[in-house]
Design brief:
17% helix; 7-stranded mixed barrel; 16 strands; 4 helices; 3-stranded antiparallel β-sheet; alpha+beta; 257 residues
């Protein structure tokens, strides 16, 4: 059976958005177009927020609003379309802004604070299309990344713990099917191709407590602990680096070079 792309997603706002798409535009050494180009800083002043907006090497994960430090955000979503950013709550559009206008960025941060006063403040909406806010841009080895998950690995995990594990918990860009569970762990440092676009497989993706959150709610389970108990690691999925420009679509075949 062939390994095929089953789902494609991008997250316009780091950690707190998830948009399904049919086709993705891939940029060499950058990643997926519009993926994680926004983020909300937390608990840092305006000078520091500008620094981490523009300089990826200055970023630390704790500088940002994430589901790990702010699980209440899991019930919200953001849509980025036609250069507009929309805040959504339970399917209802609450506010749409033009994020290139600083005064409108302030509107959306104030709206978040109004909705969730428990969030650590100050909060600032950041944007960087040239070096997006990937977790891997806040690591020792800084690189722009695309995430890939084998759906059969997720299914294997669910079967082992006798529980439905929603693939959306892992917020990957590509979800593939048609290979054995955990086969993707053998691809590290290899080159794969999807629709003739080459990617280097960089590393496994270590997971955090964000996967404990049931999609679109702030309900928690100890899924991360179960992952460690069953497999003796916290990983799910792999990080890729795009080696060339191209397009990846649902249904495209993945091959190992």
């Amino acid at each position: 059976m062939s390994c095929l792309v089953k789902f494609i997603n991008y997250c316009p706002v780091k950690s707190v958005s998830f948009q399904s798409i049919e086709s993705s535009n891939i940029k060499k050494n950058l990643g997926m177009a519009n993926d994680r180009i926004f983020a909300f800083s937390r608990g840092v002043d305006n000078e520091q927020s500008k620094l981490i907006e523009n300089n990826a090497k200055e970023r630390k994960l704790n500088n940002f609003l994430t589901l790990k430090n702010s699980p209440v955000l899991n019930k919200y979503n953001f849509l980025y379309k036609n250069e507009k950013l929309t805040l959504i709550d339970q399917g209802k559009e609450l506010l749409t802004i033009s994020p290139d206008k600083q005064e409108e960025r302030l509107l959306i941060t104030n709206k978040l604070i109004e909705l969730e006063s428990s969030l650590t403040q100050p909060i600032t909406l950041l944007k960087n299309k040239d070096f997006p806010f990937y977790d891997t841009s806040s690591s020792n080895k800084v690189f722009n990344s695309i995430s890939l998950i084998n759906l059969n690995s997720v299914n294997d995990f669910g079967n082992k713990i006798n529980q439905k594990v929603e693939f959306q918990r892992f917020r990957a860009n590509f979800y593939v099917e048609g290979i054995d569970p955990w086969e993707e762990r053998n691809w590290i440092n290899n080159i794969i191709k999807i629709n003739n676009v080459s990617f280097k497989v960089e590393k496994n993706i270590p997971r955090c407590v964000a996967i404990n959150l049931t999609p679109k709610t702030d309900i928690k389970t100890n899924l991360l602990g179960s992952l460690k108990k069953k497999y003796n690691h916290f990983d799910m999925g792999i990080y890729l680096t795009a080696l060339e420009n191209g397009e990846v679509n649902i249904g495209d075949k993945l091959v190992i070079n």
